[in-house]
Design goal:
Elements lengths: L1 H25 L3 H6 L1 E8 L5 E3 H12 L2 E16 L2 E14 L6 E16 L2 E17 L25 H4 L9
Parallel strand pairs: 1-6
Antiparallel strand pairs: 1-2, 3-4, 4-5, 5-6
InterPro entries: NTF2-like_dom_sf, SnoaL-like
Protein name: Nuclear transport factor 2 family protein
Length: 177
């Protein structure tokens, strides 16, 4: 029973790590993102980047600069554990609204993260991540209508500290996992 309970706790810690990655990416919270990877971790984002995760995070301000909206949604989480090592196939829907010279465009990607995790000093973090796109839908121009009357008066999410969540929450802080 103790091994099953530890496996459940480890899987929850890894699931929390996956969710923290989505939040940090969507809010452009690079401090939080750095906390999620081991210093020697790698990241393979296809055409955007392949190498050390910390170097990828260093390049994110330029990569994310034209992205007006980022919205990662995790669906299926498949995890396998072996002591302090784990692997995950994480299904994700990632929406991007991208500023262009003409009009903004939308990119919706259905894909998966191929992850490796290691528990070091009692903490699970990414040791490797690869992004796989299974499908994509592009709308050019964008079909997002945040100015539509049905949305008027709503709080609108934004990257960075201007996001309404930072004024609302006391426990979910910027730069913290």
């Amino acid at each position: 029973m103790d091994a099953r309970l530890q496996a459940l706790l480890d899987k929850q810690d890894i699931t929390d790590l996956v969710y923290a990655y989505c939040n940090a990416s969507d809010r452009h919270d690079l401090d939080k993102l750095r906390q999620l990877y081991h210093p020697d971790a790698t990241d393979d984002h296809g055409g955007f980047f392949k190498g050390l995760a910390m170097e990828f995070i260093d390049q994110l301000p330029q990569i994310q600069a034209p992205m007006e909206i980022l919205h990662h949604n995790v669906t299926n989480i498949n995890l396998a554990l072996d002591g302090d090592y784990a692997e995950g196939e994480i299904y994700v829907l990632a929406f991007h609204r991208i500023r262009t010279d003409a009009e903004p465009m939308d990119l919706l990607i259905g894909g998966r993260y191929f992850d490796r995790y290691e528990k070091r000093e009692g903490v699970w973090k990414y040791s490797a991540r690869a992004v796989v796109a299974d499908w994509a839908t592009v709308n050019n121009p964008s079909t997002v209508q945040l100015d539509h009357p049905l949305v008027q008066g709503s709080h609108i999410g934004k990257p960075g500290l201007d996001d309404p969540s930072y004024d609302f929450f006391k426990l979910l802080k910027w730069g913290e996992r």
